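note to self: dont lose this again. the chain is below, predicted strucutre after it. 315 aa total, dont forget to put it in the shared folder this time
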Amino acid sequence: MVNAVIERFQRLDAAFSERASKGERLYGRFSALACISGEEPPEQLVDRSLHIRDRMNEGLGTWRSPGRAMRLVFSAALAASDRTAGNFFTVRNALNARRQERGSRTLSHGGSCAALALVVAGGDTSQVDNFFDILDEITLPWWNRVPAREDVLAATFAATGETPEDARRKLDQSRLALRSAGIPGHHVERAAQEICLGPINGGELAAAWTSLNTAVRGRPVLRSGVGKTGLAVLASRGRGRETADMLVSSFEAVRALRPRPSGQVAARLAMRLTQAQTGSTEPHAAARDLAAILAAQAAIIAVAAGSTAAIAAAS
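---
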């Protein structure tokens, strides 16, 4: 019997594949993932996603970030959370205006990542100042910083009403839980930035980490695609053996899609589908959807790098 989450993803993927252009196929896959938490039928979500995408194209033009193809994923996240392109633009403009007034650092992708996170998590312009206060509190040294991740995290914290002190405390607690479970140090920070938004099963984290590493042993594509950071994120909810089984079955289901996705893309999709099956609830589902967007960016870079390497090898 096909898991309900996987079945919904398959229906969403088919609906996006039917409507999106050939060049948007990869983005359509991640758009389907971003819509997992939506309650509407797949065809209706795709219709609204494409409508929002058209409004975003009108408002952003050709050169503004995010790029044209990536806008489909942004639009899907907005559709799934019952928000509009207007909500997105209002918050994006407010963030950029306030950034200039405060003299804060430049936001990733022209403020688009932060705006989307704030909007899909239920926030509005009244939380813009709190966003910058949280961002100041959680910003890492430049050599260890991934600005887009910090923008998304600060925006989600702000939308859910957390204070800067709350955000710092939750991040510190997440780091401690991961270190105590034996997660390698260089994977702790990025995993902490994801798991700090939801419940952490510290008592089972170490055992779940072991189970997940065992599950991907002998599966090099899945192991490298999910990565140690991804395994740590999945382990944070405990239920190690059950989660490991979900990860493997999700990967096999994604690899069965046609056209068949690359191994790296399949692994990232499988990881996010596994998260959806472990019972993430609102408002944390909004952060999960945004994580899918970041994963899409990483996957696209990986695909481009692989194509470049292949061309170089053949020449």
